[in-house]
Write a structure and sequence with these properties.
It is a single chain. The chain is an alpha/beta fold. 35% of the residues lie in helices and 20% in strands. Strands 3-2-1-4-5-7-6 form a seven-stranded mixed β-sheet. Helix 6 links the parallel strand 4 and strand 5. Helix 3 packs parallel to helix 4. The longest helix is centred in the first third of the chain and has 17 residues. The N terminus and C terminus are likely disordered.
């Protein structure tokens, strides 16, 4: 597995994109909410009662509300790179706490932090949840290492992200050699990263969804409104010329089905557990004895 180049993603551009999107994010983040809902459904098959839950890449807080409903006794913590998204989350949760009595629990701590350097102590989290955040990172492996550090023994990491087929029509329509979307990592590489970080029993799967739009402008407006525009350092910095846009519109239009333009979204889901260590920090093997078992 090849390590991603350093500084491949422009983190300042990620912050700028989500700062612009924060005020209206929830109006257009239909896909993000749907993927979060599908992740929640997967928790139905997991037996876990975490004392502390971290939503990494919490955005405006939609998953925080749902996780609080599922684990009302747990302490929830939200973390995001974008301070603007956290401010929106705080304002929305304040309104909900006033309107809905069941949310009148201790206020959720919100942390503006890098996913690879979180200001939380080791083994402090029982469930680490992350919905559609990993593709904004330069190095997902570093975030997985940090997740492993934060999780308690027996803790669960559950995440979603986008796979390589996401927005393939958009990339194909701009036949200009420029970078127009994020880099999306294959799910098998994520599985390898989890094992490299010491996670146990990683499970990866994917599904393909198709969004449809009236035209290319509607798709691009949706991407801008949800903060999902390209933030790769290799992206085009200047506006594309008229000829390039005309060619892209024509190429995309040829893909239309029933008058609508398709936009493929490959959603990757993963989860893994933090198992007890097999070695001490100085490299000695740990042998565990079960007092209930006796030799014959």
């Amino acid at each position: 597995m090849k390590a991603p180049p350093a500084q491949f993603v422009d983190q300042r551009q990620v912050r700028r994109s989500f700062a612009r999107a924060a005020p209206t994010y929830d109006e257009v983040a239909v896909l993000q909410r749907e993927v979060g809902r599908r992740m929640l459904a997967r928790l139905d098959y997991v037996r876990i009662e975490p004392q502390r839950v971290l939503d990494l890449g919490c955005g405006t807080g939609a998953s925080l509300t749902a996780l609080h409903e599922r684990y009302p006794r747990a302490l929830l913590v939200g973390a995001d790179l974008s301070e603007a998204m956290l401010r929106t989350s705080k304002a929305q949760r304040s309104r909900l706490r006033w309107l809905l009595p069941f949310l009148r629990a201790p206020e959720t701590p919100l942390l503006a932090a890098d996913a690879a350097f979180l200001p939380l102590p080791p083994k402090s989290i029982g469930l680490l949840w992350s919905n559609l955040m990993l593709h904004w990172l330069d190095d997902p492996l570093a975030a997985f290492r940090e997740a492993h550090r934060l999780l308690d023994i027996g803790g669960l990491l559950m995440f979603s992200t986008f796979g390589p087929d996401t927005l393939k029509e958009l990339r194909a329509s701009f036949n200009d050699g420029q970078v127009h979307t994020q880099r999306f990592t294959d799910m098998h590489d994520y599985g390898d990263m989890l094992l490299d970080c010491g996670f146990s029993d990683p499970v990866m799967d994917a599904e393909v969804l198709t969004m449809t739009y009236a035209n290319l402008d509607a798709l691009l407006a949706d991407l801008r409104g949800s903060g999902s525009t390209c933030a790769m350092r290799a992206r085009r910095r200047s506006l594309a010329g008229r000829a390039s846009w005309t060619a892209a519109r024509a190429a995309y239009a040829r893909l239309a089905r029933d008058g609508r333009l398709p936009a493929t979204v490959e959603v990757v889901y993963g989860h893994a557990w933090k198992a007890p260590p097999r070695k001490t920090p100085d490299g000695h093997a740990i042998v565990r004895f079960d007092p209930q078992q006796r030799t014959r």
